[in-house]
Specification:
alpha+beta; eight-stranded mixed β-sheet; seven-stranded antiparallel β-sheet; 34 helices; 23 strands; 15% strand; elongated
Length: 881
């Protein structure tokens, strides 16, 4: 089995994988490729653009708009010259634009697989039939013998058969910043942790080697992650679900009312033309055609504001989804930390911190002698650990070049021996310095060393989250032969002290985590690192409070937990998960979904891609993240700053609050649009509003005020309140009651009162029929339309605040509000007195005193709504009290 390949001795690898040191023959390669396929990550379910577009064009909302457009075209054929064809074209255009937007969002998801494919190398060096050759990576098969060198990326999962100082970077796959020194010797333990395997997609940092392919394509660890990413279909964003629910409710209302009253009209003997116009009017009046385009525009503008705060949003649904987040699942390396090794502490043999001076200089000198590092381009080149030592030496003692020039011999780090060594001239003699894991250095120490006490020091430092290296020394008389090892010299060493290395915490993280807590957002760390390191970082970041018992949940524990048990652990407050795999990270996200939480996941590596797609909001790092992570995510942090997530949450909450404002604003005008049609079908009265006039409100004058409400600045309390509940949607019973049953009725009553006032002054009597081109009818419908526009001004100001007047936020704080008010006022005058517009809309002038009376609608709506707010506040206060 491939799972046992790491346990084999080097001489048994080729036989186990049915290979040979000289490589496979052509016939063997062809047979294996025919059986297993190419070494590629093919898209199993490629997006076929035509069916995908068809799905969008046949959505619930699109079909409703299309049906309305058809009715308009039929009505235009029955009675030409009424502008119904133009209306149908407008509705059809709105339908197509919304469908195209949805299609673009679906198409974007397929780019993640393309990024995964680009991450693998295209050409590799192989040995086949005793000859060296360069072939395309997708031609590899199990058993192929592959050569690796510095800068190469592994093209498949390889068992190392030969190596010379081979160091690889597994960070794109594991998410951890520590490079791995590979060996060709047998290794006990699980496949994922074996140091004799080079996994597909990982980069060679140093050295050379030869590996035998044991897994290709989707059978590699890289391919398994790609397969998971491909299989996941992200759930709709909270706003998408709420919008779909709202559209369904409004559509059902519109269709039921339209069909019912169409049937009533047929029963009452009205003409087909009258019934079609009536049904069309009911549907158009109930469906806020301008609402979804306004949603899109509001979210797009919100994404621009987020980009100014270094939060790039790739999916408009994620703009608002950030504001709905209950839990942020963050990885450690590169997100909470800086993804680099740094010397954080120097400790002497007794466990005390080394103070600046001779002791510090001596320990750094020994560590540098045992490091394989060279100056390069103003910095240092070598193992990241050795580079960290050189940087600390330079910061404390100056240029390390003079010391490096005195180094006579180096023995680089060996994965099997777990230490490195170097010998340098020291006065008239030579000094041997050894640096490595405590377990490898301890046996080399002199007999009188208190190993137990030193071991306790190492355990204490490791528990604090440090990576600990022991440094020891001894003078030597001479160097061994050129190619001899240092084993004969590495004995009776004196323990000089310990180096504590860590990946430093980002400075802005603790404050960002604190702000998340204040906003009721929980932060959970999920990492592949050691539990002690994970807990230490979590404590420093504030994810785990000081003194709080938050034992990390390990990957081994997760493997044993059933889903309900994991849900129980999360409910009990589990905040740190360590030594986890990509599959387990997805299980944590799934368990949080079982708790009905909206989950954001951060990540930067290939291994994070499945969880980024499984989350409600996937957040990738823009600078340090891989292409795979960025393509799988909906949000990219341009500055890799965890604090930017908090800014995104604040912006998302503000956007949802603003969407609620303009949704309520738009729905209010549905009342005075619907009621004239009900009166028209039930009583012998003229129709107070035509379909084209309704669309003038929905797709014209309401748009700018809606956009203005969508740009309202954040409320001071927005980040001091808990996340909204999932059931706290847009179209709640209270919103419907307020929009239709309160303000909508007031606007309808006011506009109809003016409508009948003008009719009565013009001599119309109950039951009389007015021709569509009658000037009196034009004036009456004109004042009804103008009254609705003016009452919407009062509604606009009131919608700015849930509990306040709206004026208390200041008109000049949002210039679009001023523009919206001016537009409504100007248009209310133009529909009556600007002849070109009046001719298009079928309106006419009214006496000046009637138009002046229409302006009373502004304080009427504003005042009654503010009185309702004050009463509601008092009722809530009495309930709380």
């Amino acid at each position: 089995m491939p799972g046992q390949v790491q346990n084999l001795a080097p001489e048994a690898v080729h036989a186990f994988l049915n290979s040979r040191p000289e490589g496979l023959a052509d016939a063997e390669i062809a047979a294996r490729r025919a059986e297993l396929g190419p070494n590629r990550l093919d898209v199993r379910r490629p997006l076929r653009w035509l069916p995908a577009l068809a799905r969008q064009l046949t959505s619930f909302f699109a079909l409703l708009l299309d049906a309305s457009a058809v009715i308009c075209f039929v009505a235009d054929r029955l009675q030409p010259g009424q502008g119904m064809a133009l209306l149908g074209a407008a509705l059809l255009g709105v339908s197509i634009l919304n469908a195209l937007f949805g299609f673009v969002q679906e198409y974007r998801a397929e780019r993640a697989m393309a990024a995964l494919r680009r991450f693998l190398p295209q050409r590799v060096r192989v040995r086949r039939a005793g000859e060296h050759a360069e072939v395309a990576a997708d031609e590899l098969v199990p058993g192929d013998v592959v050569s690796l060198a510095e800068g190469d990326r592994a093209p498949a999962d390889l068992r190392v058969a030969q190596c010379d100082g081979l160091l690889v970077d597994n960070a794109p796959l594991t998410g951890e910043s520590r490079p791995v020194e590979l060996t060709h010797e047998a290794v006990e333990g699980p496949l994922e942790e074996a140091h004799n395997l080079a996994f597909a997609g990982c980069t060679v940092l140093r050295g050379t080697g030869v590996g035998v392919v044991f897994a290709t394509g989707f059978r590699t660890r890289f391919g398994r992650i790609a397969g998971m990413s491909q299989a996941i279909r992200r759930e709709p964003a909270p706003l998408e679900r709420e919008t779909a629910h709202m559209v369904r409710v409004l559509t059902v209302i519109a269709v039921v009312m339209g069909v019912a009253f169409f049937a009533y009209g047929v029963y009452a003997g009205r003409s087909l033309w009258v019934n079609l116009v009536f049904m069309m009017g009911i549907i158009v009046a109930n469906v806020p055609e301008g609402l979804l385009p306004t949603f899109t525009l509001s979210l797009a503008m919100g994404s621009l504001r987020m980009a100014r705060r270094n939060v790039l949003v790739k999916s408009l649904g994620a703009v608002e989804a950030l504001g709905a987040v209950h839990v942020v699942c963050t990885d450690k390396t590169g997100t909470l930390t800086e993804n680099r090794l740094a010397l954080s502490r120097l400790v002497d043999a007794a466990g005390a911190d080394v103070t600046p001076g001779e002791g510090e200089a001596r320990l750094l000198t020994l560590a540098l002698v045992a490091s394989d590092v060279e100056p390069a381009g103003g910095g240092y080149q070598g193992d990241p650990l050795d580079v960290a030592v050189a940087q600390r030496y330079a910061g404390v003692l100056g240029d390390p070049a003079p010391l490096l020039s005195r180094v006579e011999r180096r023995w680089p780090f060996d994965a099997g021996k777990r230490h490195a060594a170097g010998a340098a001239r020291d006065g008239d003699g030579l000094l041997l310095a050894v640096k490595g894991a405590w377990e490898s250095v301890a046996p080399m120490l002199a007999a009188g060393t208190d190993r137990e006490a030193a071991g306790d020091v190492v355990h204490r430092l490791a528990s604090a989250g440090h990576r600990v290296l022991a440094v020891a020394e001894r003078p030597i008389a001479a160097l061994p032969e050129e190619h001899a090892g240092h084993e004969g010299l590495a004995r009776d060493l004196a323990l000089a002290g310990f180096l504590c290395l860590e990946d430093p915490l980002r400075a802005e993280v603790p404050d960002a985590v604190r702000r998340c807590r204040e906003a009721g957002v929980h932060v959970i760390m999920i990492t592949g690192d050691h539990p002690d390191t994970a807990l230490a970082v979590a404590c420093r970041a504030g994810i785990v409070a000081a003194g709080e018992d938050a034992r990390p949940v390990t990957g081994a524990e997760l493997a044993r937990l059933r889903e309900r048990d994991l849900v129980a652990r999360l409910e009990a407050g589990a905040r740190v998960f360590a030594r986890t795999t990509p599959e387990q990270k997805m299980h944590v996200v799934a368990a949080l979904h079982q708790l009905d939480r909206v989950v954001a996941v951060t990540g930067d590596g290939v291994n994070d891609a499945p969880a980024l797609k499984a989350a409600d909001v996937g957040i990738a790092m823009g600078r340090s993240g891989t292409d795979v992570a960025r393509e799988s995510a909906q949000v990219v942090l341009l500055d890799d700053n965890f604090a930017s997530i908090v800014a995104g949450i604040e912006e998302g909450r503000t956007i949802f609050a603003n969407i609620r404002k303009f949704t309520s604003y738009v729905l209010v005008s549905n009342g005075p649009e619907i009621i004239p049609y009900l009166l028209y079908i039930l009583f012998p009265v003229p129709l107070a509003l035509t379909v084209i006039q309704i669309l003038t409100i929905d797709l014209g004058t309401d748009i700018v005020p809606s956009i203005a409400l969508g740009q309202e600045p954040p409320d001071r309390q927005v980040m001091r309140e808990p996340p909204r509940r999932r059931e706290a949607g847009l179209l709640t019973p209270s919103v419907l009651a307020h929009s239709y049953g309160f303000l909508g009725l007031i606007e309808a009553a006011f506009s109809l009162a003016l409508f009948f006032w003008v009719l009565d002054d013009g001599g119309w009597r109950w039951g009389e029929t007015l021709a569509a081109d009658d000037p009196l009818y034009h004036s009456a419908t004109g004042i009804a339309l103008a009254a609705i526009l003016l009452t919407q001004v009062g509604n606009l100001v009131g919608r700015r605040s849930r509990d306040g007047s709206g004026i208390d936020r200041g008109l000049v704080t949002n210039r679009l509000i001023v523009i919206g008010v001016a537009l409504e006022a100007l248009f209310s005058w133009a529909v009556l007195y600007f002849e070109p517009l009046a001719r298009v809309l079928g309106t006419g002038p009214v006496p000046a005193h009637v138009y002046a009376t229409a302006w009373l609608g502004v304080p009427l709506i504003f005042g009654l709504d503010y009185a309702r707010k004050r009463i509601a506040l008092r009722l809530r206060a009495s309930v709380i009290g």
